[in-house]
Write a structure and sequence with these properties.
The chain is mainly alpha-helical. The protein has twelve helices and no strands. Its EC number is 3.2.2.21.
Length: 225
């Protein structure tokens, strides 16, 4: 049985638009943040030329996010490598041709197999406006993504930051962001989403960049989502 068995024939896959390696706005954002925020003024110089980087195409980025849910980074990488070796290419059409048993043998749960199939179908059947994303508002893209099984708001926001490189995303559901704000702004005292939103007022319109540096303050190794 293939992953796409009993599914109506899909239209050709939507072509992907490669994302830039790093954001063009990074230097301007850093200047703004260092001028407006005392913590950013201290943090940003600590990390030299390191900056946000895109992992690759949209489908692979979202597939990785599903594979990595609720398991350690090390385990996620291992499962991803086994899964990624199955299709001839990591595209929606090729994933839909995979056998469920092979996907399970790669370490994927039955639920994650279902999620990956649903993701592939959304791309393959043109339910996502991939070509239009560059001109769409963040919330509109999030609404499209959360309609996919296994993708919630946090995953959609990570996609906005790490794939589309949107400059002003504030992922208030992110544990690392709240922990970093607590450590850097509140001497380790617990912070609420409201506290984080208040701190981030000074970051606008570069909340994604500030968030990236907050993450760096917890783990110096750059995040690649």
């Amino acid at each position: 049985m293939t992953a796409s068995e009993n599914v109506a024939q899909a239209s050709p896959a939507t072509p992907f638009t490669p994302a830039p390696t790093t954001p063009h706005y990074w230097a301007d954002a850093c200047k703004h943040l260092m001028r407006k925020d005392r913590v950013m003024k201290r943090l940003i110089p600590q990390f030299g030329d390191a900056r946000l980087a895109s992992r690759g195409d949209a489908f692979s980025t979202l597939a990785r996010s599903i594979v990595g849910q609720q398991i350690s980074v090390k385990a996620a990488q291992s499962v991803w490598e086994r899964f990624a070796a199955l299709p001839e290419r990591m595209t929606p059409a090729h994933v839909l041709r995979l056998k469920v048993d092979d996907m399970r043998a790669a370490g994927l749960s039955a639920r994650k197999v279902d999620y990956l199939v649903d993701l592939a179908l959304h791309f393959e059947q043109g339910q996502l406006h991939v070509k239009d994303w560059s001109g769409m508002e963040d919330d509109a893209i999030i609404a499209e993504l959360v309609a996919i099984r296994g993708i919630g708001r946090w995953t959609a926001e990570m996609f906005l930051i790490f794939h589309l490189m949107r400059p002003n995303v504030l992922p208030l559901d992110d544990v690392g962001l709240l922990k970093g704000i607590s450590r850097n702004y509140f001497s380790g005292e617990p912070v609420s989403r409201s506290d984080a939103r208040e701190v981030a007022e000074a970051w606008k319109p570069w909340c994604s960049v500030a968030t990236w540096y907050i993450w760096r303050s917890l783990d110096p190794l750059p995040v690649v989502y």
